[in-house]
Amino acid sequence: MSWRPRNPSEPQLSAGLTRRMLIASGLLALVIGAAFAVLLASVADLRASERSTRQSEEVVVAANRLERLVVDVEAGERGFLVTGQDDSLALWRSGQAAIPAQAETLQRLVADSPGQLGLARQIQQAANAYIQDYSTPLVETARRDLAAARAQAANGEGVRRIDAIRAEFDRLVTVEQGLEVERQSRSGAAGRRAIAAAATGLAGSILLIVIFAAYLARVIVGPVRRAAAMAGRLASGDLGARLPERGVGEIGVLERSFNTMARSLQSSREELAASRARIVAAADQARRRIERDLHDGVQQRLVSLALELRAAEAAATPELKQRLAGVTSELVGATDDLRELSRGIHPAMLSEGGLPPALRALARRSAVPVELTADIPERPLEQVEVAAYYVVSEALTNAAKHARASVVHVAVWARDDGLHLVVRDDGVGGATTGQGSGLVGLTDRVQALGGTITITSPPGEGTTLVVDLPTEVR
Questions:
Q1: CA–CA separation, 467 vs 230, rounded Å?
Q2: Between β-strands 418-425 and 464-469, what pairing exists: parallel, antiparallel or unpaired?
C-alpha cells in the first residue's frame, strides 16, 4: 500500500488544536486565578481586621487596668487619711508598683497609632505626676500630722487630678472605639469583595467551561463520530466514503489522513482483496476494543459524576460552590479521557503515574466506598497495567450498578511470578459471565494476556474477583 509523502505544513497544522486548547485552558486559569487572588487578598484583609479587633480589645482592657491602678492609689491614700493606719497603704503601694509596667503594656499595644501612643504617654505622665507631686507628699504629711494632711486633701486638688486622668482614659478608649468602627467598615468591604470575587470567578469559570465544552463537541466529538462512521463504512467495503476536510489542527490532519487512506484503499482494492477478511476482522476487533474501553473507563467516571452532581443539587447548601468546583474538575478529567480514548490511548493517569495512582483515582470517583491496598515496587508491562486497571474499573461499576454493595475491597500486589489482583464487595452476589455481562470482556482481556480470572459470587454473599496476570505477555 502506498501513502502520500508527509506534508511539510502538517506540523504547523497539528499545533492548531493544541494551541486553541492551551489558550482556552489559559483563559480559564486566568479567570480562576484572578478570582482567587482577590479572594486571598480579601481573606488577608479580614484576618488583619480580626487581629486589629483583638488588639483594640486588649487596648481597652489595658487602659481599664491602668485606670484601676490609679484609682487604687487614690483609694489607698484616702483610706490612710481616714484611719491613720499604715496597713491602709497596702493598696496604695501595690498600685504604685504596678503602674509603670501596665503603662508600658498600654503603650506597646498602641505603638502603631501615633495619636493613641501620645495619649498613653500623657496618661502615664499624669499618673506619675499625681503620685510624685501630690499623693506621696500627702502621705508623708499625714505620717507627721494627720490633721494637716486631711486639711490639705479637703481643697479638692487630688479629686481634680484624678478626674483629669480619668478624662484622658475616656478619651483614649473613645478614640480606640472609633478606630475599631473604621476597621470593621474595612472588614465588611473586604468580605463583600471576597463574595463578589467568588461569584465572578464561579460564573466566569462555568461560562468558559460551557463554551469550551461546546467547542470541543464541535471540533472533536463531531469529527470523531464522522470518522468512526467512515471507519464503519470502510470496514463494510464502502471505499468511496470521504470525510469533509473542515477540521482544525489534529482533527484536520485526521480527516485528510482518513481520506488519503480511503483513496489508497480504493486504488488498491485488488491488492487487498486477498486480505480483506483480515482487515474486516481487525476493524471489528478495534471497534469491540473501543466499545469495551468506553464501557470500562468513561462510563464508570460518568456514573460517579452523575451521582455527585445529584447530591450537590439536592444539598443546596453554602458548600455548593466547592462541590460544583469538584464536579467541574471531574468533567474536565472525563473530557480528557474521552479525547485520549478517541486517539486509541489508555487513560492518561495510568500512562503518566502508573497503576497505583490510577487505581486511587478510580477509588475516589467510585460511587461505593473503596478500601485500596497496592504493593507494586516496579511498574509491570503496559498491557498488564491496562488489564488490571479495567478489571478494577468494571468491578467498581458493577458494584455500584448491580451489587448494592456498601464497600469494595481492592488489593493488588506484584511478585516475581506476576501481578495479583483481588476485588471483593459485600453486595448481593449472583454475578454471572452470561451474555451481555461486562465480565465477559474482562475474561477475554485477561485471557488474551495469558492470565487467569476467577469469579466467586454466591447469592447474598458478595462477589470476589481473583485475577493473576503474568509478568511476560506471550
A1: 37
A2: antiparallel
Rounded Cα distance between 220 and 213, Å, is 10
CA distance 25 to 36: 16
Say how many residues make up the chain: 474
* pLDDT for res 191: 73
CA distance to 290, 351, 449, per residue, from 384 (Å): 18, 12, 8
Mean pLDDT of the chain, nearest integer: 75
Rounded to the nearest angstrom, the gap between the alpha carbon of residue 414 and the centroid of all alpha carbons in its chain is 33
HSE-CB of 333 using CA atoms within 13 angstroms: 23
Which run of H or E residues covers position 454?
strand 452-456
CA 96 to chain centre: 56
Amino acid at 116: Q
Residue where the block lists cell 470476589: 464
Quick check: 262 and 279 in contact, CB under 8 A? no
Instruction: Name the grid cell of 448.
Output: 488474551
Q: What DSSP state is assigned to residue 296? A: I
Cell of 218: 464541535
Domain residues of the chain, as ranges?
27-195
Contact 188, 71 (CB under 8 A): no
Helix 114-129 with 10-83: angle, nearest 10 deg:
20
- Please name which of 331, 294, 304, 290 lies closest in space to residue 396, comparing C-alpha atoms: 304
- Distances in Å between the Cα of 239 and the Cα atoms of 222, 234, 247, 276, 282 are 21, 5, 21, 12, 16
Q: How far apart are CA 5 and CA 3, in angstroms?
A: 7
Q: Which cell is 132 given?
A: 510624685
Q: Which of 242-251, 271-280, 323-332 has the highest mean pLDDT?
A: 242-251
The residue-averaged pLDDT of 355-383 equals 87
Residues 6+ apart with CB under 8 A from 152: 138, 141
Q: Where are the alpha helices (DSSP H) in 268-418?
A: 269-273, 276-293, 299-315, 320-342, 348-353, 355-365, 382-398
Q: For residue 228, give the nearest of 126, 326, 344 by alpha carbon.
A: 344
Q: How is residue 437 written as a grid cell?
A: 455481562
Calpha distance 439→350 (Å, rounded): 21
- The per-type count for the chain, helices as H runs and strands as E runs, is 16, 5
CATH 1.10.4030 describes domain 27-195? no
| Residue pair 15/249 in contact by the 8 Å Cβ criterion | yes
Per residue in 320-347, pLDDT tens?
A: 656 665 665 666 566 556 555 543 455 6
Maximum Cα–Cα distance across the chain:
137
What count of other Cβ atoms lies within 10 Å of the Cβ of residue 49? 20
> Taking residues 215-223, what's their average pLDDT?
73
Reading phi first (left if > 0) and then psi (alpha if -120 to 50, else beta), residue 378 is in beta
Please check whether residue 451 is in contact with residue 468, taking contact to mean a CB–CB distance below 8 angstroms.
Answer: yes
